[in-house]
Amino acid sequence: MNLDFKIKNLLLICLIFLGVFNHYSSQIQTDFKTGADQPELYLPLLKNKTIGVVTNQTGLMNDRTHLVDFLVKNGIKIQTIFAPEHGFRGDADAGEKVKNGVDVKTGIPIISLYGKNKKPTAEQLKGIDIVVFDIQDVGVRF
């Protein structure tokens, strides 16, 4: 009788464990896609438009391609890149003055949003149909 009781308890524990394990394993999300990695959803909206992009070095797709490079490769007309504190490609140190310029890789003008110009002016937005914002952030400031 004692052995029968132990086997039943062991079987019960195994069933509970398998039930809990199955419940949690079914909730594990294996594939996460950012908006940038779903071009089929946004490329049709950007075709034949002139766009501005607010981004920095964090604007990467899963394959580590920068969103701006991907858009240019796919025929999207980018008029201006608006870059925050560390610059568009992340070349500037913290607190360093970021100047307006031109991206060496794409030839697209870059306007700094760090310093006196915290947001694009009406003049800088002239001719732009859509502004795409792609900066990863944890949403917390200390």
Q: What features would you describe in this structure?
A:
This protein is α/β, with parallel strands linked by helices. It has a domain at 37-134: Rossmann fold (3-Layer(aba) Sandwich), CATH 3.40.50. It is 30% helix and 17% strand. It has helices spanning 2-25, 39-46, 67-73, 122-125, and strands spanning 50-55, 77-83, 101-102, 109-112, 130-134. Strands 3-4-2-1-5 form a five-stranded mixed sheet, covered by helices on one side. The longest helix has 24 residues, at 2-25. It is elongated, with a radius of gyration of 25 Å. The model has no long low-confidence stretch (mean pLDDT 81).
Number of helices: 4
Mean pLDDT: 81
Widest β-sheet, arrangement of strands: 3-4-2-1-5
Q: At the fourth CATH level, what is the homologous superfamily of one domain?
A: Uncharacterised protein PF07075, DUF1343
Number of E-state strands: 5
Radius of gyration based on Cα positions: 25 Å
Order of helices and strands: HHEHEEEHE
Keywords:
alpha/beta, 5-stranded mixed sheet, 142 residues, Rossmann fold, 4 helices, 17% strand, single chain
Could you give a short description of this structure?
This protein has 142 residues and is of the alpha/beta class. 30% of the residues lie in helices and 17% in strands.
Q: Secondary-structure map with pairings?
A:
Blueprint: H1 2-25, H2 39-46, E1 50-55, H3 67-73, E2 77-83, E3 101-102, E4 109-112, H4 122-125, E5 130-134
